Amino acid sequence: MATSFALLTLTATLAAGCSESPDDGGAGGSGGSGGLPSASGSTGGGASTSGGASTSGTGGTSGGNGGASSSGVTTGTGGGGASTSGTGGSDSASASSGAGGTTNPGSELGAGTMSGSGSSSERYETGLVSRDDTPYVLITNGWGPGFGSHTISWEGTSFTVESMSGTAGSMGQPASYPTVFCGRYSVREVPECGLPAPAGSITSLRTGWRWAKNGNEGEYNAAYDIWMGNGTQLRGYLMVWLRDPPSYQPAGQPNPAHQGVTVANVPGTWNIWNGMVNGLPIVNWVRAEGNDSYEIEFDVMDFVRDAETRGLSVPGDQVNAVAVGFEIWEGPITNLQSVDFYVDVN
């Protein structure tokens, strides 16, 4: 299949993800977004656009509300994400569901046809990619004030952080959050990926992700970032953390009533953190420290329903976007890999 990718010229930060301060036994303060303006790239692959999103942090939160849209580009709203507190588990890229290492016989992971490839050391670079002809967007997204450098390569929804250096911001912001997403996220709405979609119209929103740490034991998470909203408006965040790093923690606070819980139809157990980011609610389901999950497949609506059942639901009547990536607080990172990711909206 022919290689194609598209890059955007950005006028300001792409802050997708939100973060808290280093773990001190409680919920930390969060930091505003940072980054260099006018990071540039070329365009191609049918997505000839210029301009980008303007994102600003607010009062102690990371991320921020999205800014101006460019010609042909719909900008979303920055934010999402969280920070962590945990240690990595065993290194594995096996077909483990995260629930005791059992294989999922109905797995869609590893079977997709990827299209769109590239490699970049630019701080902000955006590539249009696809998996089984469904379009997604990759953002290299070195948005944090402590970002140093990185080199990221990709093919379809698979990407590798070949190298990365940086440090956490003074308010606990990650240095970067390389991400692949479907929907209305911090850069643009992906054409015809199935999202955004009204929650009431979704029969199932199946997704899967396989990743490999490849020896990286440091300060990074591996997390889903799910944006809820109304129309073009972002209303709140749901996050699913498959790895909890040693020194950072999710946005909000641990909810004492919802620790070590299970979610219907989803493997594994979770600790729930909830709170506010940029004045919007966030609910985080976090794998326990040292209990990394390297592969998972689930229906996003099961997490939506789980939040509602626990009285932790976020406002908004549609699912705007589903993203996966690595919030990285500190380098060096070498060959951290997102192996496969898909979203299937029905």
What this model shows, in words?
The protein has 346 residues and is mainly beta. The chain is 3% helix and 35% strand. It has one helix at residues 300-309; strands at 55-56, 65-66, 114-115, 117-120, 126-131, 134-139, 147-155, 158-166, 179-183, 197-198, 205-212, 222-230, 233-243, 253-254, 261-263, 266-277, 280-286, 295-299, 318-325, 336-345. Strands 3, 5, 6, 9, 10, 12, 13, 14, 15, 16, 17 and 19 form a twelve-stranded mixed sheet that branches. The two termini are 27 Å apart. 58% of the residues are buried.
Helix content: under 10%
Shape: globular
Strand content: 35-45%
Distance between the termini: 27 Å
Notable characteristics:
single chain; mainly beta; twelve-stranded mixed sheet; globular
Short description:
This protein is mostly beta strands and 346 residues long. The chain has one helix at 300-309, and strands at 55-56, 65-66, 114-115, 117-120, 126-131, 134-139, 147-155, 158-166, 179-183, 197-198, 205-212, 222-230, 233-243, 253-254, 261-263, 266-277, 280-286, 295-299, 318-325, 336-345. Strand 7 (147-155) and strand 8 (158-166) form a beta hairpin.
